């Protein structure tokens, strides 16, 4: 949880300021990881290793696309998902 951004781990749901928002499994897992370890920078490769199955080939840009979709879905909280150029992404609370 961060302010009005609420992840329900058991139900696999996300709400933004009280409104349920539909997330893909991948988007949910990325947001969950970023929220669990706020202020920690995750490289694209680390996100790939921790989110996607190991038997799936994933390009770096796939991470970027998922982050972009995630930012759109969380609206006012999107500014907290920060890009550290050359390093990766973090949730800056």
Strand content: 15-25%
> If helices are DSSP runs of H or I spanning 4 or more residues, what is the number of helices?
3
What's the total number of strands?
5
* Helix share bin: 25-40%
Query: Which stretches are poorly predicted, pLDDT < 50 over at least 5 residues?
Result: none
* Helix and strand composition category: alpha+beta
Largest sheet, spatial ordering of strands: 1-2-3
- Mean pLDDT, as a whole number? 96
Rg, Cα atoms, Å: 13 Å
Alpha-carbon distance between the two ends = 11 Å
Secondary-structure element series: EEEHHHEE
Largest sheet: 3 strands, antiparallel
* Quaternary form: single chain
Report the principal-axis shape.
Answer: globular
Write the layout of secondary structure elements.
Layout lengths: L4 E4 L4 E4 L2 E3 L3 H12 L7 H8 L8 H14 L7 E4 L3 E4 L2
Helix pairs in contact: 1-3
Could you characterize what this model shows?
By secondary structure, this protein is α+β, with helices and mostly antiparallel strands. 37% of the residues lie in helices and 20% in strands.
Give me a quick take on this structure.
The chain has about 90 residues and is of the alpha+beta class.
Provide keyphrases for this structure.
three-stranded antiparallel beta sheet; 20% strand; 3 helices; 93 residues; alpha+beta; two-stranded antiparallel ribbon; globular
């Amino acid at each position: 949880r961060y302010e009005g951004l609420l992840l329900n781990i058991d139900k696999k749901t996300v709400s933004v300021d009280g409104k349920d928002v539909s997330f893909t499994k991948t988007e949910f897992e990325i947001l969950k990881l970023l929220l669990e370890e706020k202020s920690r920078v995750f490289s694209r490769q680390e996100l790939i290793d921790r989110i996607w199955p190991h038997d799936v080939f994933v390009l770096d840009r796939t991470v970027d696309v998922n982050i972009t979709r995630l930012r759109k879905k969380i609206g006012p909280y999107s500014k907290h998902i920060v890009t550290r150029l050359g390093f990766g992404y973090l949730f800056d609370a």
